[in-house]
Amino acid sequence: MFEDTVKKAQEIMKNRGLGAIFLHPGVNTYYFTGLMKASFERLLTVIIPDEGEPVAVVPGFEVESLMKYSKIKYRDVRGWSEDQDPYILVGRVVEELGKSKSTIGIDGKMEYIFFEGIQRALPGARFIGAADVLNELRLIKSRDEVELMRKAARIICKAIKAAFESVSSGRTEIEVSEVLHGEIRRHGGLSRGYGNVFFGPTSALPHPQSSEKKIESGEIVLIDVGAQYQWYFGDVTRAAVLGQPTEKQKRLYGIVLNAQKTACEAVRPGIEAQELDRTARRIIREAGFGQNFRHRLGHGLGLEVHEGPYIVEGNRLRLRPGMTHSVEPGIYLLGEFGIRIEDDVAVTEKGCDNLVVDEFPKDELVII
């Protein structure tokens, strides 16, 4: 998998006139090497030339770690010691690659302090952002990537079910959220606190934070959570109610459910991203709540919980097999409650594959 991504990158680089790309620790370095490292104050980068093998420039004490944990085997790892200027080494490496006077792409996630040092070391080079190259590669997921996301979504659904079952009168949002994230970890997922549990009026805010608010009978419980399995994200949202729902709650749930299912059924190769947003928005607008659907229909998923493609008005990108994204319409009544239903889908040759297998049913507003 990882060797193929380097070759694909090099094809795009040649078409774009890029001599090399500098990667920054994090999702893009993982995508090419299988090594997930955090960014600290020391320069650690992988240089991908437009031909040949990548070169890693890392702190000297990281060399063994890189060799052990990377999914590809580096033939060229350059370590620098604490009393050296790493950018001198960078300049030497790029000179050896014959790219010191070429156009060089910089990972958009690289901190400016590192870019500044690289730029200083290569005064004859021209620098541009490489986000479009990297995003183009990551936009289409392999079967392996899709399966990791499916596993992440299933773990989330198990955790959501356990969290809903833990809700009882007097419990706080934070207490239920702790159950949610604990269950994610118990089932093998990586929980980083993306998404939480919201009761009543808090659920009317699309991205609030869990608090010490206690649940009251008749309130909506909204659970929205993103979690990872082997670094790939799932992102699922479900709603329920403690006690008997009102007619208004049931009606709004039905509208959102119709919009969500209809949009999922419309996913197919060739459809514009904005058309999916319009499909769901039309249903909610015709029901009289257009102004209460306050965000885009969805976002891409992968190594990041939000990445391309963005399913939003104005995005004329045509979906292609292998693209993965959320479908999450919502209606939000400030001061009262909000309803959002979210699944993750992968575009296939003929339509779409819903990656979410419900442990907690969504076909009606569930009573806790």
Give a concise summary:
The protein is an alpha/beta fold and 368 residues long. The chain has ten helices and 17 strands.
Notes on the structure:
The protein has a six-stranded mixed β-sheet with strand order 4-3-2-1-5-6. It starts with a helix and ends with a strand. It has ten helices and 17 strands. The chain is an alpha/beta fold and 368 residues long. The protein is elongated. Helix 7 packs across helix 8 (173-186). Helix 5 links the parallel strand 5 and strand 6. The mean pLDDT is 94.
Topology summary:
Blueprint: H1 2-16, E1 20-23, H2 27-33, E2 45-49, E3 55-59, H3 63-69, E4 77-80, H4 86-97, E5 103-106, H5 112-121, E6 126-129, H6 131-139, H7 143-166, H8 173-186, E7 195-199, E8 220-229, E9 232-241, H9 247-266, H10 273-286, E10 298-300, E11 307-311, E12 324-327, E13 330-333, E14 337-340, E15 343-347, E16 352-354, E17 366-367
Parallel strand pairs: 1-5, 3-4, 5-6, 9-17
Antiparallel strand pairs: 1-2, 2-3, 7-8, 8-9, 10-11, 12-15, 13-14, 15-16
